[in-house]
Structure formats: structure tokens, C-alpha cells
Amino acid sequence: MSEIYDVIILGAGPAGLAAGLYAGRSRLNVLIIEKGQDGGQIAITDEIENYPGQIVEGESGPSLIARMTEQAEKFGAKRVSDMIKEVELEGEVKVLKSEKNEYRGKNVIIATGAHARPIGCKGEGQFRGKGVSYCATCDANFFEDFEVYVVGGGDSAVEEAMYLTKFARKVTIIHRRDELRAAKSIQEKAFKNPKLFFMWDSVVEELEGDDILQAMYVKNVKTGEVTKVEADPEDGMFGLFGFIGTVPNTKIFEGIIDMDERGYIKTDADMHTNIPGVYAAGDVRVKSLRQVVTAAADGAIAAVQVERSMSDYF
Ligand code: NAP
């Protein structure tokens, strides 16, 4: 029979690592399980300017997350790399199963975050990794001196488009409306960037190419006109980045935990889900603001709730 942890945290993004830090400092026996690299979406974010107290010029997602990981481990959070495929959450001891292992905990904090929403155009799957990407930090250098298009109008699309201008010779944001959703401070910087252009009221309908992305059909939603955008013949290809929001990583909890219609987990203000001993923190839960600071705060609250539920003092 495997060890029974006081709390198992699923996911090592800002929410999971903050929960690990607080649980570790409370002397709980804590295990953090992460399937890939630490940091979740923040690991693929180039620049962070709005985490309070974080004033290091050019702080990147990976550098911030590396310090969060180190801090959680310093206070005793144990780590394992594994992908949980099945969960049994009812009862006093929760069981999390991967292909080869089973993990047991008295409490579980779900901090599995969210992933990029696909653009939803024809041919998208075929050109993934062959022109289509959802991570500027990962793939920008493949487009050194090429033309790049970015779909979306939120903070992510505009910030990542600006990052891409450091590599690409021209970056065009394709947005379905005629005004951006991004914060005004971000918009101000974007409109001043000489390498950044906009295609308003437009959606990408279909992608084409011989193996790599060479053309796409873009529809103007106001006029109905469809334009074929082709790669510069000298380049032979272009890049298309999608930043149109996220989808929660909650598939394994479907039918088990209460969620909203989009699959985000419902919690109360103290991160309790509908199942006793099961908490959700960060981007994975229903909330109005998905930021590093709110994810970290959720993680801290969830860990303190676990501590209180296990302590005689409260
Ligand atoms: P978001 O704010 O939800 O924006 C998504 C964008 O994609 C919107 O402009 C939306 O258009 C567009 N869109 C959605 N579905 C689409 C579709 N099917 N086809 C075409 N366009 C579509 O997502 P996000 O930018 O990823 O940001 C997520 C959260 O993280 C937000 O709370 C954001 O503030 C936060 N964030 C903050 C920072 C920062 O503070 N520095 C950086 C990154 C992210 P409409 O505008 O027409 O709806």
C-alpha cells in the first residue's frame, strides 16, 4: 500500500506551487504531481510585469516559476512527474491513478490550469508545428525574419504579438472585432509598435500548404468578403499563432466534480469543490480574473483550508 499524503496537489503552475509552499510551511506531508514542465501557461509567457513586487526588468514566466518551485521544495513539498488518468475522490482517502502508479491523499488540490483554445479553422490540426503554434516563447525563433499572423484580441494575443515582433519582420493581429479586448496599457504599447499591423473584423477560415503553412483564407465578418493571404514567395511560408483564450484541463473530473458549462470547476470562496477534501485553485476554477497573482492566492487559500480541516486548533 502506497504512502497516504496529507494533501496531493495536481499541477505545478502558480496555484499548485503556492499551495505546495503553504502546505509545506504548515508541516503537512505534501506531494505535487506535474505531468509536464512546471509553470503551466506561465512557462510559455515571455514577460510578466504585473505580479506584485516583481520588478525585475524582463522577468520571464520560466524565471518566476523556477523561483516558485525552489521555494515550495525548500519547505518540504515533494515532487513527482506523472500523468494522472483516473481519480477516485469520494471517501476519506482519495486515489489518483496514472498508467503505472497510484497516489493516495487525505486531500486533493486540483491546480491543473488550462490550455490554449484551438483557432477552429479548417486544416489547423494538419499545420500544427508546421506554421501553426500557440506558444510564442517556444516557437518565435522559427520565424526569424518571416511574416507572422496572430489570432485574438485579448492580453495574450497582443502581448505575444509584441514579443513576436522581436523575431518576425512583420506581425499582423487578426481580430474578429474592430477593437481589442486587451488592457489599455498593453494596447498603447501595441499601437506604437512599427512592426505590428491589424486585420479587423476578421476570422481565419481555412489553411493551405504543401506540408508547411503557405496560405490561408480570412473572412471579413462585416462584409463577408474572403481574402486569400499567401506567403511571400521568397519566404515560402508564414506563421500563425492562436491566442483566443483557454480551455480548462478538467477532462478526468467530468461527471465527478461540479463544473460550469465550459468545464471550469465550481468552488466557494475558500476553494472547496462539491466533494469534501477536494479543492480547486487557479485557472481551472470558475473565476473572474485569471492571473498569476489570483492563481497564487487561490493556492494559498486552498492549502490553509486543508491545514484547518486537519488541525485541532480551528
Ligand atoms: P481572453 O481575454 O479571453 O481573450 C480572448 C480573445 O480571443 C478575445 O479578444 C476574443 O475576442 C478572441 N476570441 C475568442 N474566441 C475566438 C474565436 N473563436 N475566434 C476568434 N477570436 C476569438 O484570453 P487571453 O488573452 O488568453 O487572456 C486570458 C486571461 O489571462 C485574461 O483574464 C487576461 O486578462 C489574462 N492575461 C493577462 C495578462 C497580463 O495581465 N499581462 C497577459 C495574458 C493574459 P473578443 O474580444 O471578440 O471576445
TrEMBL record:
State the source organism's domain of life. Bacteria
GO biological-process terms attached to the record: removal of superoxide radicals
PROSITE patterns assigned: PYRIDINE_REDOX_2
Taken from the record, one Pfam family name reads Pyr_redox_2
Cofactor dependence: FAD
Domain FAD/NAD(P)-binding, chain residue ranges per copy: 5-299
Q: Which Gene3D superfamilies match?
A: FAD/NAD(P)-binding domain (3.50.50.60)
| GO MF annotations, alphabetized | thioredoxin-disulfide reductase (NADPH) activity
**What keywords are annotated for this sequence in UniProt?**
Disulfide bond, FAD, Flavoprotein, NADP, Oxidoreductase, Redox-active center
Q: Which GO terms describe its cellular component?
A: cytoplasm
Enzyme Commission code: 1.8.1.9
**Which reaction is recorded as catalysed by this protein?**
[thioredoxin]-dithiol + NADP(+) = [thioredoxin]-disulfide + NADPH + H(+)
Cofactor notes: Binds 1 FAD per subunit.
Q: Which NCBIfam families match?
A: TRX_reduct
Q: What does the sequence similarity comment in the record state about its family?
A: Belongs to the class-II pyridine nucleotide-disulfide oxidoreductase family.
The annotated subunit structure for this chain is: Homodimer.
Task: State the name under which the record lists this protein.
Answer: Thioredoxin reductase
Species this protein is from: Dorea longicatena
Upper classification of the source organism reads: Bacteria, Bacillati, Bacillota, Clostridia, Lachnospirales
| Protein encoded by which gene | trxB
